[in-house]
From TrEMBL:
This is Phosphomannomutase. GO terms for molecular function: intramolecular phosphotransferase activity; metal ion binding. Residues 385-460 form the Alpha-D-phosphohexomutase C-terminal domain. The lineage of its organism: Bacteria, Bacillati, Actinomycetota, Actinomycetes, Pseudonocardiales. InterPro entries: A-D-PHexomutase_a/b/a-I (IPR005844), A-D-PHexomutase_a/b/a-I/II/III (IPR016055), A-D-PHexomutase_a/b/a-II (IPR005845), A-D-PHexomutase_a/b/a-III (IPR005846), A-D-PHexomutase_C (IPR005843), A-D-PHexomutase_C_sf (IPR036900), Alpha-D-phosphohexomutase_SF (IPR005841). Belongs to the phosphohexose mutase family. It holds the Pfam family PGM_PMM_II. Keywords: Isomerase, Magnesium, Metal-binding, Phosphoprotein. Its cofactor is Mg(2+). Residues 21-134, 166-266, 274-380 form the Alpha-D-phosphohexomutase alpha/beta/alpha domain. One of its GO terms (biological process) is carbohydrate metabolic process.
Amino acid sequence: MASEAAGPTPWENPVRDLSGVFKAYDIRGVVGEQIDAALVREIGAAFARLVGGPAVVVGHDMRDSSPGLADAFAEGVNAEGVNVVSIGLASTDMLYYGSGSLDLPGAMFTASHNPAKYNGIKLCRAGASPVGQDSGLTDMQREIEQGVPVGDAAEPGTVQTRDLLDAYAAHLRSLVDLSGIRPLKIVVDAGNGMGGHTVPSVFAGLPLEVVPMYFELDGSFPNHEANPLDPKNIVDLQAKVREVGADAGIAFDGDADRCFIVDENGDAVSPSAITALVAVRELAKDPGGTVIHNLITSKAVPEIVAEHGGKPVRTRVGHSFIKQEMARTGAIFGGEHSAHYYFRDFWKADTGMLASMHVLAALGEQDRTLSDLTREYNRYAASGEVNSTVDDQAGRLAAIKAAYAGRDGVEIDEVDGLTVRLPDGSWFNLRPSNTEPLLRLNVEAADDDAVAALRDEVLAVVRA
């Protein structure tokens, strides 16, 4: 019989609530309101306790608040007796390079594409292995909420400064050789983000004429949001590609871990098509390999992977799920509809730069235009993500399930939200946002008219 004097469980009666800052995959919030140096110092200490020694590699983006927050984090790490390797200005995939090549846990200070008032931290274990809610973030949150103090090590850690930019660039060039391609003119829109720091080093000395756009590092994002998935943010890139007669355009998000591609006509190339293109190239090097794709990528992706002798594996949306499946299956590559691309040869981490290099290699190794090259990877029409604000996410999902469950030939799964496949080959996925009262709808069908009809049919129920 249990003792009545057992007392509270370890995490009862927290001192404060940090649930608005600790997210599924990272930590982020408004600087000065949700995140400040004092909290980040505690986070640094909690991370050091989580991962242990000997050191943590730390990088930061170009936001005004990033250097100070990175310093505060280092103080917390040092207070636990753990050293810090500071790599300074970095893209997120450059931080992953540091974590992988040095075999150290890492922390990247960035809020990616979020507005200037935000900042955050992406954390990983040694070898760029992700840290999310189920792999350490929740434990850190609870410790800090409970008031576990920052350590006071008898021998505090030290901070060592290292510049990894040239080594990062050399590593990427060793994975995709662009030295022998035909000369290409490309426009690169860095969005005033970290692509402006990394692109010149990665592309130096290659047969590329780079037309730079917004390479100035500016965390206030004076030209447009650094989120290339929003069509309004690639308008300038599209216009410049047409104006200068470029072979292609590349847009990076704020921390340059995602890339978005436009062809010589200035038309956007879907991330699903890029996933398929890169998968084919990786399978040529590794016949029979496994390729991960999330359940919102086009069904063309698993079709093309299978046609090229690969094994497609479908997973939930989100980088922690992709990386877990890559580790479980030994996958050579993974792609998401959000323009995140993951490579076994890059510690299973995502790197937009390496994906863009694959596209340039595929283009430059033959004479066709990019629109012609990618046409074979575009087989279906898609809606893009359509968001609906709802009061009852579960109730609306149940209504959609009820509306389609009784139809002949309809297949339904609930791997991530609700995926419904119809007998004519069309499908849709409806899933709830983790952070907002939204349902996110993605539809794919044979043509634009079929997409519009299915989209409207689903939204009529969702928004009823």
